Amino acid sequence: MNVNQSAPPVPPFGQPQPVYAGYHQSSYGGQPGSTAAPTPYGAYNGPVPGYQQTPPPGVSRAPASSGAPPASTAQGPCGQTAYGQFGQGDVQNGPSSGVQMQRLPGSQPFASAPLAPVVSQPAVLQPYGPPPTSAQVTAQLAGMQISGAVAPAPPASGLGYGPPTSLASASGSFPNSGLYGSYPQGQAPPLGQGHPGAQPPQRSVPPQASSFTSPASGGPRMPSMTGPLLPGQSFGGPPVSQPNHVSSPPPQALPPGTQMTGPPGPPPPMHSSQQPGYQLQQNGSFGPARGPQSNYGSPYPGAATFGSQPGPPQPLPPKRLDPDAIPSPIQVIEDDRNNRGSEPFVTGVRGQVPPLVTTNFLVKDQGNASPRYIRCTSYNIPCTSDMAKQAQVPLAAVIKPLARLPPEEASPYVVDHGESGPLRCNRCKAYMCPFMQFVEGGRRFQCCFCSCINDVPPQYFQHLDHTGKRVDAYDRPELSLGSYEFLATVDYCKNNKFPIPPAFIFMIDVSYNAVRSGLVRLLCEELKSLLDFLPREGGAEESAIRVGFVTYNKVLHFYNVKSSLAQPQMMVVSDVGDMFVPLLDGFLVNVSESRAVITSLLDQIPEMFADTRETETVFAPVIQAGMEALKAAECAGKLFLFHTSLPIAEAPGKLKNRDDRKLINTDKEKTLFQPQSGAYQTLAKECVAQGCCVDLFLFPNQYVDVATLSVVPQLTGGSVYKYACFQVENDQERFLSDLRRDVQKVVGFDAVMRVRTSTGIRAVDFFGAFYMSNTTDVELAGLDGDKTVTVEFKHDDRLNEENGALLQCALLYTSCAGQRRLRIHNLALNCCTQLADLYRNCETDTLINYMAKFAYRGVLSSPVKTVRDTLITQCAQILACYRKNCASPSSAGQLILPECMKLLPVYLNCVLKSEVLQPGAEVTTDDRAYVRQLVTSMDVAETNVFFYPRLLPLTKSPIENTTEPPAVRASEERLSNGDIYLLENGLNLFLWVGASVQQGVVQSVFGVSSFSQITSGLSVLPVLDNLLSKKVRGLIDGLRAQRSRYMKLIVVKQEDKLEMLFKHFLVEDKSLSGGASYVDFLCHMHKEIRQLLS
Amino acid sequence: MATYLEFIQQNEERDGVRFSWNVWPSSRLEATRMVVPLACLLTPLKERPDLPPVQYEPVLCSRPTCKAILNPLCQVDYRAKLWACNFCFQRNQFPPAYAGISEVNQPAELMPQFSTIEYVIQRGAPSPLIFLYVVDTCLEDDDLQALKESLQMSLSLLPPDALVGLITFGRMVQVHELSCEGISKSYVFRGTKDLTAKQIQDMLGLTKPAMPMQPVRPAQPQERPSVSTRFLQPIHKIDMNLTDLLGELQRDPWPVPQGKRPLRSTGVALSIAVGLLEGTFPNTGARIMLFTGGPPTQGPGMVVGDELKVPIRSWHDIEKDNARFMKKATKHYEMLANRTAANGHCIDIYACALDQTGLLEMKCCPNLTGGYMVMGDSFNTSLFKQTFQRIFSKDFNGNFRMAFGATLEVKTSRELKVAGAIGPCVSLNVKGPCVSENELGVGGTSQWKICGLDPTTTLGIYFEVVNQVAQPPIPQGGRGAIQFVTHYQHSSTQRRIRVTTVARNWADVQSQLKHIEAAFDQEAAAVLMARLGVFRAESEEGPDVLRWLDRQLIRLCQKFGQYNKEDPMSFRLSDSFSLYPQFMFHLRRSPFLQVFNNSPDESSYYRHHFARQDLTQSLIMIQPILYSYSFHGPPEPVLLDSSSILADRILLMDTFFQIVIYLGETIAQWRKAGYQDMPEYENFKHLLQAPLDDAQEILQARFPMPRYIHTEHGGSQARFLLSKVNPSQTHNNLYAWGQETGAPILTDDVSLQVFMDHLKKLAVSKIMCSC
Q1: Cis bond leading into A256, ω under 30°?
Q2: Residue A487 above 60 pLDDT?
Q3: A415 in helix, strand or coil?
């Protein structure tokens, strides 16, 4: 069928480098042990390996594949056993066999065409074997699906293999989970046992990409569909499968076996589900697994109708798809985790797609920067701009230059080239990196970016070995690693002077609101201890950072805390119109030297202002003051601003309340996101020039105009934290935790980032929290390990496949000890002349990161609706291009998604539904502005979870198992009212309690005897001494630890009014604010694509 | 003659008044021909231990334009209980309280010996004294330390309920809040920005916020004081606090690069001080005390840039119109001074630095408000320390010798009008029937404000006789009367009124010239003329003023000398005029009119004091006193002449600003030889000691404390003496006079003898200068 083709076009890769190769090999060949994880995947891997199997040693060749299928088939039947045997890794077989099987059947039912391609594919694929091109995978996936939920299921449950009692599982997915141990979804089991027979046929279906046929389009099929379906379910698994796309559902629903046996329930739904015109062909990876169990059938009665409506091509936008049949983020994540989480990701090979951000993996730097530093939307760049335009896939890199690394990975080596400074290309100024070619016996080197030939300075000279490599290549980080640092010489410093260690200035609002809410007291108390944990470099005894204190309301109070003073001195500056710093000596002090005075000060601040009546505040002058203080001290630094209210006092930067919900959905909506006055931009510019980074903590009780207040933090690389209606009792922990983290995190100051690229492409656009005074240099007053810059590239010439495309990101910054350094990240990408290569090497998460940032910036200048439409259009174009150029021909009614982008629609829908682009009634203007600026500097992992929250069932897995349970899809129908779920998106954390949760559970988690006694809105779980309580709290702590901001817990009871809030995060559902459900959106997307195609 | 001298002295002791003429010419024309105007030196608060204030209020003339106060010169009809105003002749009823009045039962104010009387006004709440210290922190460490100690010391001298405030400045200006515990709090202002009074008060939080809640709650009486007293606290409350605060004062922390002056924001600091008091205690006695150790170098009121290579303006620069900041700065300080004066506060300047500190520009602050100006080399000198301490000296009642917010009103009988006043005052612009159209000094008004004054503060007040020759002929034996009414805030916080009513006889010049001549007070006249001259010198070129003085002198001599025309040798002056030319000779050479060898600051300093000291001190300033000590007898005053400088004498010269002890050549050699330590020469030791003791006496009494100079023949400091004495012997005439006595002065200045010769020549000649 149309489905699979994507793979074939793939040009022969000299190396299978692309991700797949890499990991396959490693996983199978290299580390058998690790297989455990893979096994489960049988689903995908299955197929892939299928081909590979033969070449387990790493050589993936055509022959193997051919051979494989049979093998697989063989296995198929006795799948389980097979797995067992393989133990080590070759789980794949199972699935692979499936694939073949599927195809056959699949082809039959439908036009023969599909068959052929399918067949061919494998062949083609094999050569690439290693790189399980999207096609393959998808194919497999498809197969899986079809074959049923079965295939996919297993992957998830990897562990579960042993006891795959299909029946049980089939009947009740959740219950099954118990059996399987950690993997709640019962799918796995079905696989194992029973279906052997049934599955294979189904699998055949799976062409690479996930494709959904619309019933309409499927005209011919329709009949078959309908017809077969029903029967299919009953038995015909295989037959049904034929319509690759279409058929898929049935199989899923009931692994034949299961059906048979038992759960009559499922079948019916299945029908319904299947019919829906659009079915994903995607290879089983997603849908199938979960789908079945849950009630999909029932909910979507409509589905049936679709099916029936075959006639008119697109009668009505066929509404209901089987939610289980459409690509599931959970499944993809889970699969990637299992497939790639076990192996270190070795960066030596050009153009490898790294594992997903949701996967835990180690990175070995062998010449390219770790994906923790740079992720690209595509690791294979079109050679020409025409191609790029055609594909519409944005070429962007998400760069996090100072990303924190897990303890197992070493931070970049620091290279000191002494007086002469780092070696650079004379023409383009690129820094020495592993891609530079040494020629003429090592006396010269050719720049890999601009091809300029440069002399090697004598002190740097080294002989080359027979391969043309420098003999000392492995002794020098800059010749062998993707990321490293140079010590900068004085030439790289402001005013040609080595920098003075930076300073932190705490600027505390002491107006009435701040005092009354208890903020001031809390903060002062906390600072006393927090000051011991200022960031320090390496093994330094104490931090080099100096601190200063300012409080303010309508006027500013500076404090002299010089160590020689008996008591602190307060200096009030009322001239807010013309801010200046009243003191020099004694304002910025070393914490340990002035501890007594600082402590005294922090003790007194809450007292001094305890009776304040001042409600008005200023804002811009505060920043101005901090900046001036740093200027006077001639150092860079960071301001921590704790602010409560709209600055309405007479002063520069005075704001008025301009919140107006009536503007929403009008052309003027954009003004809500724009700053009120240009003054803040000007101020920000000055801050950047001084290396003054501003972190803003907001504690508003009402509108504070975040859009304007966040301008300076945004442009200076700072962070904004917002605690609406701050109450010490409720929000203390969250605030303190954020504060601690924010103060302690390592920051680079006064930074300039420059991205250099191979001739042919050029960085043209930048997103993030920074300021740019020209078109190339990203200026960051401060940059911490959480801040990300997204860079978009455009062609300005041709690239060539042989050389690929290189990126070098150089960040010049001042460390927190005051050392001037250059951090270099290099990344080599492949170039392609075939669109399919592009699609096969994409990263959807990164793409979404880019698109979200692009859209969020767009709302500043265009109506939100336009922005939304632009997004949808671009997405449609991307997919349509794929369909047109890469997918094998198929009926127009089929929705075919590239494997790598099959989650694009669901994620995009989440972006479209986010509060910025589609605000609900309860979302305030400030919230939107806040989120908007937050997303601007998020990295890929953050955007991923932010847009598609994680929903974790807590009571499914055995209590003893304290690892994170597998997530479920963010949809209400995935919630069982007998369970407790955690939902998190990086900012919010909910604990949802089903109405009929067992009393025992309630007792052990909440310490109350019944559901009704649980306090709704509770934010702290009682500390109880039982396993479940510990586990739940442990999980919550674990989740919090993963995020850069503390997530305040909110306990939501089913049917409670707070549930509305919670439901907002069930992003696959229709949202109250009018956001489409996943299914609806997919339909819409399909329609768009078809329009484009026609 | 003796009678007149006694009369003058008596009057001075009783009323604090000295007139240039004690018998007044009866017509305008005659008066102008007398050359020296009818004028008086008035010391409004002259100490009168024998005059207890009366505890009731004065009785006023009921005519609205007059309002003169009942005085001994009024005619009283005891039976009708009526009195006639001696100025406007209005008949007034006595108030009810005077019902028991009779010839034998007179109220004090009707008794002749009470021509000066002081009333205590009971109305109104007493307001505390206020002292606002404005302290420069751009000082050397030991200077700052000394200043801090002086300030701390001063706290102990203040009455416990006095309010004090502290402003420090350097590059920034800090207004210290004194009420806070545990943390010292101050408001900081940029030193470069000129702020309006309103802005300053807003920034200090002195303006009452428009409270919307006000209507809800009845006015809070507490609020107002609490706001204003944050910066000004009663000393008994914050004594310790302020002492610590002063103790912790640091040098201005901003780095001063090589070759630069520290940035000193004196202009803004003063402006804030003025604004602060203006907003909190208008029309209440308050003293702003500015302590500065250098010139203002930034912001409004800057006098010199911070580049050390550009020196501060000199007279030379000013003459060449090369003082680029002077005009602007002067304007700034004048504006401040006027505002301060309007609020009844005064500004003192204590400037201690080796170089100039900008007193020229700032002089109007003390000059217009009655504040003190003290100039020294360092805060770490006894000159400053003792002078400062003396400010807080107490009188016999234990009250400070200072008064605040005074207004001086002058009422005259119809034949006279007030032409103006010269002294530490500003005009209140009160026109009235007794205001002359001709101005002498600060004129055009009959009332002046003197924001700060002490018992020695003396004003020169000038009158004009307006009687036309024959109009209403003045009855024989008629008297003209003048009433001085001084409202002021006593340092005990009482409001008081001191009334001085004086009268002098009218005399017809034609017939009674001798009387008039005999009643001439040449000392008062010299000082009054000098004040006029110095007042002119502030606005005119020096040589013009000298010429004017010369002309006046010549005319006076022509008028009152006895001589034969064209015969200089015949020229004689009567006793009552005999010293006058000599005063003028020394005045011409004095630093008040000569700027040579003086910096603009010094000139301002000298003139400041000249314009406020009483007659005795003023005369010392004009013509220093010289005493001679020798074995030949007790110390004796000698001529201020080079011939007095003898080898075997010790000289003690008092110029008011300096006390110079000069050892003659022989004495110096003896001392060097150590004779004073030998028991057999104890008398020599005593001789050496005698002038020291006398000097000490002067030093103790005088404010500001003079510079004490101990020098000897050939010493470099001897110049102070040599520049003052009349150069009767110079290198030019040395041999002509023979070697007999004295020491030659190396100068081209004319000596008194030459001066007198010229004067005689001109006086007897027909050539008259026009004016």
Answers
A1: no
A2: yes
A3: strand
- Residue B67 lies inside a defined structural domain of this protein: no
Given an 8 Å threshold on Cβ–Cβ distance, is B186 in contact with A572? yes
Neighbours of B104 (CB within 10 A): 6
CA distance B195 to chain A (A): 10
Question: What is the number of CB-based contacts under 8 A between chain A and chain B?
Answer: 70
Is some CB atom of chain A closer than 8 A to the CB atom of B579?
A: no
Question: Is B614 within the bounds of a domain?
Answer: yes
Enumerate residues 6+ apart whose C-beta is below 8 A from B199.
none
pLDDT band at A1052 (very low <50, low <70, confident <90, very high): very high
Model confidence at A519, pLDDT cuts 50, 70, 90, reads very high
In the prediction, which pLDDT does A314 show? 40
**pLDDT (tens digit per residue) in A321-347:** 677 788 899 999 999 999 888 889 999
| Chosen domain end from B337, B364, B391 | B391
Mean pLDDT check: name the lowest of A132-136, A928-932, B197-201: A132-136
A585 to B185: CB separation less than 8 angstroms, yes or no? no
Answer yes or no: do B506 and B594 share one domain: no
CATH number reported for the structural domain that contains residue B691 in this entry:
3.40.20.10
Whether residue B476 sits in one domain with residue B381: no
The alpha-carbon gap from A377 to the nearest alpha carbon of chain B, in Å, equals 53
Q: Is residue B555 part of a domain?
A: no
- Chain A positions touching B269 (Cβ under 8 A) are none
- Tell which phi-psi region holds residue A456, choosing left (phi > 0), alpha (psi between -120 and 50) or beta: beta
Q: Are B409 and B485 in contact (CB under 8 A)?
A: yes
Q: Are residues B341 and B423 in the same domain?
A: no
Q: Judge if B579 and B444 occupy the same domain.
A: no
Which residues span the domain enclosing B271? Answer: 130-208+228-391
- Please provide residue A573's backbone torsions phi and psi, each rounded to the nearest 5 degrees: -115, 115
B414/B510 same-domain check: yes
Domain boundary among B370, B391, B412: B391
Sequence-distant (≥ 6) Cβ neighbours of residue A101 within 8 angstroms: A72, A73, A76, A143, A147, A199, A200, A201, A202, A203, A204
| Amino acid B566: pLDDT | 85
**Model pLDDT for residues A834-893, shown as the tens digit of each residue:** 999 999 999 999 999 999 999 999 999 999 999 999 999 999 999 999 988 888 877 777
Whether the predicted pLDDT of B215 surpasses 50: no
CATH number at residue B312: 3.40.50.410
3-state SS class at B132: strand
Task: Give me the domains of chain A, ranges plus CATH numbers.
Answer: 414-483 (2.30.30.380), 503-744 (3.40.50.410), 843-948+1073-1093 (1.20.120.730), 949-1066 (3.40.20.10)
Cβ–Cβ gap A574/B193 under 8 Å: no
**β-pair type (B286-292, B130-136):** parallel
Helix A844-858 to helix A904-913 angle, to the nearest 10 degrees? 30
Q: Which of B174, B182, B253 shows the shortest C-beta gap to A567?
A: B182
Mutate to test the interface with A, among B168, B187, B265 (most CBs of A within 10 A): B187
Q: What is the pLDDT of residues A700-721, one digit of tens each?
A: 999 999 999 999 999 999 999 9
Q: How many domains does chain B have?
A: 3
Condensed to tens digits (0 to 9), the pLDDT of residues A664-699 reads 888 888 888 999 988 999 999 999 999 999 999 999
Residues B409, B361 within the same domain: no
Tell me: do B510 and B633 sit in the same domain. no
Domain co-membership, B193 together with B153: yes
CB atoms within 10 A of CB A863: 16
Interface of B with A in 159-188 (CB under 8 A): 172, 174, 177, 180, 182-188
Query: Does residue B356 form part of some domain?
Result: yes
Euclidean distance between the first and final Cα of chain A, in Å? 20
Cα distance between residue A789 and residue A810, in whole Å = 13
